[in-house]
Amino acid sequence: MIAHDLFVPSPLLVLSSGTMLMLVSIAWRRSITLSLSIGLLTLLLALAGTDHHLTTGQHGVATLFIQDRWADYTTALILLSSICILGLSWRNLLHDTAHPTDEYPLLLLLGTLGATSMVFSANYIPFFLGLEILGISLIGLVAARHHHLTASSEASMKYLILSGISSAILLFGIGLAYAATGSLYFSPPVATDGISHGIPIAAATMILVGIFFKLSAVPFHMWIPDVMEGASTPVAAFIAVVSKIAIFSSLVRYFSAGEMQPFLNDTMTAVIILTILGGNLLALRQTSLTRLMACSSIAHVGYLLMAFLSPGQLQSGAIVVYLAAYTASTLGVFSVISALAANGDTDGTSIADWKGLFFSHPFLAVIMSLMLLSLAGIPPGIGFFAKFEIAAASVERQRDLLLAALVIGSVIGLYYYLNVIRTMMTPDIVQIVTYNRKNYPELTGLALVLTIIVIVGGLFPARLIRPILPAPVTIIPRSANTIAPDIDTAMRYAIHDISP
Amino acid sequence: MSDLLSISALCCHDGAAMHILAILSASITVVGAIMVITRSIAVHAVLYLVVTLLSLASVLSLLGAPFAAALDVIIYAGAIMVLFVFVIMMLNLGQPDSDREKEWLRPRAWFGPAVLAAVLCGELFFGLRDMPDAGPISMITPRDVGLMLFGPYVMMVELVSFLLLAGLVTAFHIGRYRMEDR
Predict the structure, then answer these.
(1) Largest Cα–Cα separation, chain B
(2) Model confidence band, residue A255 (pLDDT cutoffs 50, 70, 90)
(3) DSSP A242
(4) Less Cβ crowding at N or C end of chain B, within 10 Å?
């Protein structure tokens, strides 16, 4: 009965088995190399099996997971990013002989599992569980930093509290949505007769607030610079890339049912303008490269949401290209930061430390400049085309206000990205002797691969533009007969029966 | 459990009473939860936590979920709280036992939780007093829940277990560095 009733996406299966295998191997003998290898192998296997699914059981609303090209695409992005991040942290973990750090790859794998679960979810339960698995793994990952224990503990405490609050709001919204519709299907609640009109609106708003919190859209963005600064560089990349892709992908799926309600549309417009301007303005004053990337990731979320709010012919292509561009460029920047990481107390993320990089490490400096230009939206990087697509999608829907915000945000963005490049070009009068930068050849290789992706994607972006967004689904209206018999409806029956 | 059932039957019979009872239980839950996080002595917080969980159970039963309420009482207010108290007693080995017990048995420690618990108890008696003849109730039995958890929701159970694993590893991970840091 289970075999054909259940639909389980295969990446989820592979990731869970890999996690258990890693647990067994840790119990047997603690070896960081072995754990990292198992983690890498699991991620590769999951990537290989992304679009092969063992069972296909999509019967109506009762399914917990859904599988379509959108889920496959975002899963592939998440898995590729996790592989990159594992590669970024490999050296650091091997060098840290003082502590057995098997927890790191374990938590990384669990976080990826949570993100994958969110991407595939067609029901509130796997979505929320995935979100929590991702969040709790991130708390541990943020705190896993030995040279800066106080800073990282502080960051993980901040993340714990703020993510707890946002989860509570989200859960309240889910509860209200269930009260209004009687189903846990992952789509905005629609008002039905007998329920007051306010409940579905309140539910959708609270769920959106929770999602914005995790996405760090502007009224709810305060945590991300602090948390990313406190975390180690690979973990900061994980927060900026994997968790944002997963949540954005869920947001797109959540509203895939059709047009948004007008008031949500207005709210989203306001949030997007605030996010683009706020993220860019915050980034202007940053002196730490990690904080700068955090603020710029806020702004990029704003651009992504802009594409999300402009449904039309071009929307799908814009979202797909922009996600790929953002992922590749951000990972590129973080891999250069890791490749140049210092051993000592400073981790070399202060922008002033990057003075004269064009003279000491010309190759890495060129890669870094390319990535920053791609983020700013300048050719030949893929970022140019991505931003162009977003602007085109917005023009198609005549979002004038949003377009103005995009232009202003891009100009501000250009300033701070170019500022980093200018710093790298300034000859350093005091030679770099204080910062004992080590050169990691394999990280340089990784950065090179990402550069190739960014440039090739920028030259031939047409292959990426495909209609893969989730297809609109019909929402089954609430009635006692059509809802599949599961626990919650059974409870509903119980209430109906005993009420007069 | 049967007492809780009776409350649920009563409330659906009488709308106004249900509202008052539900609001009362919910406010006890909130007050208890606030007290839990503001107490500085762990045992006092635990006492409030017990009351919070009990009132949460009565809210659940008022919502028509007696099975969830029973689980809440048995597992949380029962088993897990016993574990909490046990661990706290194990860890506080500094003072002499008699002093410690005297400290814990002061009225200041148990007066608040006792009042809240008394209100809950009164609610229960009120529910028992005029127990109406409720019609046929289709109960959710443990068997139904088990079939659901091992049937369609089996993957969710797995995900929850991974969530617990993540929490465990994270707590251990952070806690260990704290210990080594000292």
Answers:
(1) 63
(2) confident
(3) I
(4) C
Whether the predicted pLDDT of B1 surpasses 50? no
What is the model's pLDDT at position B76? 87
Q: What is the mean pLDDT of residues B96-123?
A: 77
CB pairs under 8 A between A and B: 116
Fold of B2-140: Four Helix Bundle (Hemerythrin (Met), subunit A) (1.20.120)
Which of B162, B172, B182 to mutate to probe the A interface, most A CBs <10 Å? Answer: B162
For B:61-120, CB contacts with A below 8 A are 64-65
ipTM of the complex: 0.85
pTM of the model: 0.85
Q: Domain-by-domain residue ranges, chain B?
A: 2-140, 141-182
Contact residues on chain A for B166, CB-CB shorter than 8 A: 107, 110-111, 114, 133, 136-137, 140
| CA A325 to chain CA mean position, Å | 13
B135 interfaces chain A, CB cutoff of 8 Å: yes
Contact B169, A103 (CB under 8 A): yes
Tell me the two tokens of residue A335.
């891999």
Instruction: Give pLDDT tens digits for B59-76.
Output: 888 877 888 888 889 998
Residue of B nearest to A145 (CA): B177
Q: Taking the mean position of all CA atoms in its chain, how far away is CA B170? A: 25
Helix, strand and coil content of chain B, in percent to the nearest 5, comes to 85, 0, 15
CB A54 within 8 A of CB A10: yes
Q: What is the mean pLDDT of residues A110-139?
A: 93
What per-residue confidence (pLDDT) applies to B137?
61
Say whether A497 and B138 touch across the interface (CB within 8 A). Answer: yes
A471 Cβ contact list (under 8 Å, min separation 6)? A68, A256
Instruction: Kindly determine whether residue B135 and residue A498, on different chains, have CB atoms separated by under 8 Å.
Output: yes
